[in-house]
Design brief:
Rossmann fold
């Protein structure tokens, strides 16, 4: 579970920006939050803003930190850290460190993890664990100095410290070397955090292939039943979903393709998703017709990817981060999917959804508390700022957020300067 995530000097976020998933003192919408370790945490947060305001960049910061934790143990000496993307529109920021801070709960343990890094080096790294309100240091690292270990740290120290390259995280290297004390802190990034910056192209295709395999190899599983029920419930015209094994003879490879590449390709495309629709005669159902999922609408195909990751999140208690959640979906379907996280009878594992959207209609559906709504906008220097709706003066429980937002009263809307364009268009 996520408590807070803070970003500084990453992409358009020159200054410190924080997303807080802790419930405020506001009342109402009791299903929109849950309790964890004497805290009340929000089940969802939605981010609004103009195009290029920094919404996607903020969500990509989650991915950058995840990448560092899961991959840095394999980084080679002196290689550039690929996720180093500082703010480039300020000369003072271009060479500064990128910094992330994350407060999270993993298996009932509350951690605070802080990382800052430059192009080729980890500048600082610190992991602490909480016992109630008492914060206990596990380790603290600063470039050019020996790692400081807290009294509660147990496991390899100096040997792993010497093995850790300047561009590698100590957390990643320690877990690679079986430091059991840090496994739980690491597993949050490996098992609980799921990030999908934009569902499109190959990402959607890979997800559909993944779910095709799950449907084919375990058709009676809880996931398969829920997946079927979700797709059929959302007015897609589909009555059943299944996966069938493809005929490998349909694929023809040039002789120059290595055999191991062929094997990997055939394994990836081993299953196809089939959708079934009723066939009618004189208004009565007389049978069913199978279709390849590629023949479905763009919205239905997107639903196959999005529906799968939402069901997994609810089943496993994931922190799910998604950009453009509403892509190709009717607003009512988007609302339905969001509200699954607000139902304690369905969201029993305390999953959380963090997403960006342009779908203003969600603000009019009485779906969110004001402390769940965030706005991102850029200043005159191109730096992003982010603020919470509940912190805006004059916004009350009965404020029509959708109308205020579209009227520009909440900020974070595009300023269209069309004078020069209109003059140019009229010149001819």
């Amino acid at each position: 579970m996520l408590l807070k995530f803070t970003v500084e000097n990453f992409r358009s976020m020159r200054d410190r920006i924080e997303l807080d998933m802790t419930k405020s003192a506001l009342k109402g919408h009791t299903g929109n939050y849950f309790e964890a370790q004497d805290r009340k945490l929000l089940s969802t947060s939605v981010i609004y803003g103009a195009n290029a305001s920094g919404k996607s960049g903020f969500l990509r910061a989650f991915q950058a930190l995840e990448y560092l934790v899961l991959k840095s143990a394999d980084f080679k000496l002196d290689k550039t850290i690929a996720s180093y993307e500082p703010f480039l529109l300020d000369e003072d920021s271009q060479g500064r460190s990128v910094k992330f801070e994350i407060d999270y709960i993993s298996n009932d343990n509350h951690y605070e993890y802080i990382v800052s890094y430059s192009r080729k080096e980890i500048e600082t790294e610190e992991l602490s664990i909480f016992n109630g309100n008492y914060k206990s240091l596990l380790f603290s690292r600063e470039r050019g100095k020996d790692i400081k270990f807290g009294d509660s740290y147990r496991g390899g120290k100096k040997l792993i410290e010497r093995m850790t390259l300047p561009n590698q995280l100590f957390l990643s290297k320690a877990v690679e070397n079986n430091v059991e004390l840090l496994l739980d802190a690491y597993r949050f990034f490996d098992s609980k955090l799921r990030i999908y910056p934009i569902l499109e192209g190959m990402a959607e295709e890979d997800l559909k292939r993944l779910y095709a395999r799950r449907l084919a190899e375990d058709a009676g599983s809880s996931f398969s039943r829920k997946f079927n029920a979700l797709i059929c419930a959302l007015d897609t015209g589909i009555t059943q979903v299944s996966a069938e094994e493809t005929n490998s003879d349909m694929f023809h490879f040039p002789d120059s393709i290595p055999s191991d590449v062929k094997v990997k390709f055939l394994d990836r495309y081993r299953y196809d998703i089939k959708t079934y629709h009723n066939v009618f005669k004189k208004g009565k159902i007389v049978g069913q017709k199978a279709f390849d999922v590629r023949d479905e609408s763009a919205g239905t195909k997107n639903l196959f990817a999005l529906g799968g990751i939402i069901i997994e999140a609810l089943e496993e208690g994931h922190v799910l981060v998604v950009d453009e959640l509403e892509k190709n979906l009717h607003p009512d379907i988007t609302t339905f999917l969001i509200r699954l996280f607000h139902r304690p009878d369905i969201n029993r594992n305390r999953a959380q959804l963090i997403f960006a959207t342009h779908d203003v209609s969600q603000l009019s559906h009485d779906t969110f508390r004001r402390d769940q709504v965030w706005f991102v906008e850029k200043d005159e220097c191109g730096a992003s700022t982010m603020f919470r709706c509940s912190d805006i003066e004059g916004v009350r429980a009965d404020t029509p957020l959708d109308k205020w937002y579209m009227a520009g009263r909440l900020g974070a809307t595009p300023v269209i300067q069309d004078e020069n364009f209109l003059v140019e268009m009229q010149e001819d």
